[in-house]
Model the fold of this input.
Amino acid sequence: MAQITGINPITLRAWERRYDLIRPTRTPAGHRLYSQQDIRTIQRIQELAESGMGFAQIASLLEHESRSAATQPEPEKPPQPVAPPRSLLERVMQAAIDLDPAALRAAEATALLWLTPEDYLREVLVESLAHLEARTAWPDRDLGLIWLAEYIKGRADWVADAPGQTDSPVVAIDTADGPGQPFTAGGLRLFSALHDDRLHARLLPTGLSETQREQLVRRWSAKAWVRIATVEPGPEREQPGSLAGARIFRCRLPALEPESGDQAVDFMQRWRRLVEDDIEHCRQAVASALGPARPKPNTATRH
Done:
């Protein structure tokens, strides 16, 4: 169902359990079965939410429409296609190009109607930054990239400090390319991968000196310190050492260089394959060094 509608399973379950907006049938094994009417209802909810309507209003409107349809039956008509919502990626990217914080906040408000903060961070914000890094110049390009990267770092800090992470081993993450260098899309994707592994991943502030970084790593009692270097694809990976009481992992992630047209699409596909391989290698190295990850609670029913 998530593939058909574009709505992630977590959001579909929230619409069902929290708001009682959809009522799929269940198999004896507990799996959800969605009818064509359920699909039309999900599309209707998506349309109304995108227009800014709250879920309480959506529930009332759907109930009214259901009663009206029951009391005044009409000949069945083919369902009218519902226009998909404006791409969140496009909205975030345009906000960064325009340096428009209000537009970015509006895109976030819309996204969080459907997505968890973790999904919004990984699937929308970091993906938008990656697309922009691969683009050729526009006015204030460097400023726009730094501005969006710092905004995303703030949202990553919000995710990192969410309840439930305090008992997990702390993994500090920073950039090793020099003081003041912002996190790239690859570095932020690595943060998401480590956070999903139920480690308490935390991003170090980018403006700190080396001494201040060591002080903060000690203050956090970090067990691991991941230092990201942006290099050309394919270098040898360095063996970890230790510093400030934390084991050091030097993760090298290939940089996204701006291209144009088909070259940008082709390069981004190759970059994605390379960076995901390096991210997985680093994630496994950190998880193995710190012991098995704390298992995620299994409360969701399979779709």
